[in-house]
Amino acid sequence: MPHWPFNSDVTRHTWVAIEASGFPQPVPGCVYDGARLDGGVPLGGLGTGYFTLEGNGKIGLVSIYNDIVPPRRDFVDWLTLHVGHVALPLSSATIAYWGHHPVADLVAEFDEMPLRLGLRAFAPFVAGDSATSNIPAALFEIEVTNNGLVSLDIALDITPPAPPTGKLEQVALVGEGLHTTSDSRHLRGTITLSVPPGQSHRARFVFAWYFPNWRDSGNEAHVHRYGLRHDSAAAVAQDALSHFDALQKRILAWQNVVYQSGLPPWLCDALVQSFYSLTKNTVWIARTRKDEWWDEVGWFTHNESHTGCPITETMVCRMHGHFPALFFFPELESSTLDAFRHFQISDGEIPFSYGMQTSLRDPRYHCQHPLNSGQYAQMVYQLYQRTGERRLLERFYESARSAIRYQFTLDDDGDGLVNDQAHVAPGEHWPANQFYDIWPWWGTSAYVAGTWLATLAAGVGLAEEMGDGEFASECNGWLSRGLEAYQNLLWTGEYYRLWNDPAHNRSSDVSLGNQLMAQWCVKVLGLPDLLPEENIQSALAAISRLNMVATAYGLVNGVTPEGTRFDAGWPQAGDHARNTFVGESLCAAMTFIYHGHEEIGLEIARRLYEAMALKTHSPWNQRCLISSETGLPVWGDDYYSNLVIWALPMALGGKSIAQFVRPAGLVDRMIQAGAEIRDAGLKIQDTPSHENAS
After folding, report:
1. Which of 327, 335, 318, 328 lies closest to 225 in space, CA to CA?
2. Where is 577: in which H helix or E strand?
3. What is the CATH number of domain 293-671?
């Protein structure tokens, strides 16, 4: 290979075939000029904290020392090459950067010296193996090539992120030929190399951290799950270094399954990169006391965005973003849903979140509650479809049934449909109390009522699995009435209007890009269609003509019947109406695909991802809301919702969750690829399986 770890002489900022170390065939990806990147690959695992390796070669954001919200902003040099009296920080080089999370591959060229540096940095994130993915370490391999005419003696000086004062014993740096020193604040390592002309030398090292005890933003003390797997940073580092090859091979193996899947190159990249949110936004705490209600698996949470809008497990965001946890770590998904079950109140209502910032036991109710409880019930059914475990169905059924019955109380007019419950003061726009939370709707909306219809269908499915004929009949009765009212209130003759409030003689004929949310919800569950096929096809044609034509980036959220972006008359509300929610547009794209319009659906999704990956160079800082005019970020860094991209290959196969996770499918092949290289010598405590968990 001409340039280890990958061939860097390729066109930048577009999709190319990359020849890379560890991959048997070229793989699709995008190589960036490092200086133009907006954020780098976060090095960390599930609930371990992370630090970013920025495109300019510096360490950027740091959360490994429990600076979770907000993460610490270092943006400092960490690697310097000393050649005689010349010091060459990595940041002084011209860097070609290819990330394939959890791996960052860099090729650096220095103007001052005839040197090329190749760098591969990675965290042990293995799809399907939550225990290995919970190791608090980053692994590095460096290759230095001497392109000059004389031998060069080179010292690699390594300064990992500085821990808090007095905590040096909780970090470790180990490597081949590495000598460490420290002062009152920093741990440093040095590797010396003598490189003849035209030759290359490599070195490996591991940086590990061990900060298991922390307090959330509600000031409650917790222990990170990784604290039960090792007992020190030194133990983590030595263990990871001794299994360097096995960890790297396992990562590249599951990635290669994606790359060789036959999916479009941009989608392969989107799937691999999307996992970065599991590094940046998750916390996984252990069970260490008898009075803790969760089991030995621990309690896993994914934040809406630790950097953009920190709320722990926002239900309406996890409705989009929970698919990677569901597919690859169902034991963790179960722990998350179990927490919602735990916080359910006596009337059946499921909370909107566990709390603000990193708080875990400060649940919030009556925020977006026309959606939360029903979406929880749908996710219970999704978990059962993923695992097929009767035990899980029995654990969650009573809670799901109670949640659905709570939503019955939100039917204001007895027509079988949940009504919108905007909590806004006169003349204001927040909280609108649904996903588009500064764009209030009134009466009955296509989105909220449609999601409710899907909840009722899921309720029928759950009840039939449990042999609960009474509740199945109850849900079917509501569904029959609701479907009739939905058509009467919302069908314009061409598409489903945004909302209708006949009690106050007002309505909106705005076309919502994701007005067919009901259909996406039932498709992923493998349930029968809710809406008439002729209406679905007509609505899809209208969305294509109105919402898609109005932007080059996905779908405009709201468009008038005349084809103009809707403006609610208030700047913030206009943002939500006039622009593009990435997660919502992806759901709409999948609805196109499920209903026979694969080309349109893929085009919508491609435009969305390329706006982030190619236009703003931010595959590891994906926004929630982008401008429908420019494709540039409008709001929200590092968003949970965008993980819904993992449902797209499921839609392309026309499959439900249960079908998508079957043996020999993409999910199973990825899990098996990583497991086949499993290194039994890695000293980690595996997470208990569902069958063994208490």
Report:
1. 335
2. helix 571-578
3. 1.50.10.10
What tokens does 25 get?
């065939």
Measured CA to CA, the distance from residue 620 to residue 606 in angstroms comes to 17
**How far is residue 502 from each of residues 409, 530, 669, 675, measured CA to CA in Å?**
19, 23, 52, 57
| CA–CA gap between residue 324 and residue 278 (Å, rounded) | 9
The 3-state secondary structure of 667-682 reads: HHHHHHHHHCCCCCCC
Q: Which residues of 170-180 are buried (b: 16+ CB within 10 A; e: fewer)?
A: bbbbbbeebee
Q: Which residues of 185-203 are buried (b: 16+ CB within 10 A; e: fewer)?
A: eebebebebebeeeebbeb
Which of 268, 265, 300 shows the shortest CA–CA distance to 282? 300
User: Domain locations in the chain?
Assistant: 33-256, 293-671
Cis preceding linkage at 124, omega within 30: no
pLDDT in tens, 498-536: 999 999 999 999 999 999 999 999 999 999 999 999 999
Closest to 526 (Cα-Cα) out of 306, 378, 341: 378
* Residue-wise burial string across 617-647, b where 16 or more C-beta atoms lie within 10 A, e elsewhere: bbbbbbbbbbbbbebebbbbbbbbbbbbbbb
260-299 pLDDT, tens digit per residue, is 999 999 999 999 999 999 999 999 999 999 999 999 999 9
The DSSP secondary structure of 43-109, one letter per residue, reads: EE-TTS-EEEE-TTSSEEEE-TTS-TTTTEEEEE--EEEEETTEEEEGGGSEEEEEEETTEEEEEEE
Q: Hunting for tokens 């010292």 — which residue is that?
A: 155
- SS3 (DSSP) at 41: strand
* Cα–Cα distance, 493 to 630 (Å, whole number): 32
In whole angstroms, what is the distance from residue 48 CA to residue 588 CA? 34
131-166 pLDDT, tens digit each = 999 999 999 999 999 999 999 999 999 999 999 999
User: Containing H/E element for 478?
Assistant: helix 469-490
Q: Is residue 427 classed as helix, strand or coil in its secondary structure?
A: coil
Q: If you compute the radius of gyration of the chain from its CA atoms, what whole number of angstroms results? A: 26
Distance, CA of 13 to chain centre:
22
pLDDT tier for residue 27 given thresholds of 50, 70 and 90: very high
Of the candidates 157, 34, 37, 145, which has an alpha carbon nearest to the alpha carbon of residue 94? 34
Q: How far apart are CA 417 and CA 415, in angstroms?
A: 6
**Tokens read off for 420:** 């919108």
User: How confident is residue 3, by pLDDT bands cut at 50, 70 and 90?
Assistant: confident
Say how far apart CA 329 and CA 333 lie, in whole Å: 6
Q: Is the domain 33-256 a CATH 2.40.128 member?
A: no
- Output the six-digit token pair for 452: 């409710």
> What is the distance between the alpha carbons of residues 298 and 90, in angstroms, rounded to a whole number?
39
Asked if 611 and 622 touch (Cβ cutoff 8 Å), the reply is no
Average of per-residue pLDDT across 610-636: 97
3-state secondary structure of 590: helix
The single-letter DSSP state of residue 610 is: H
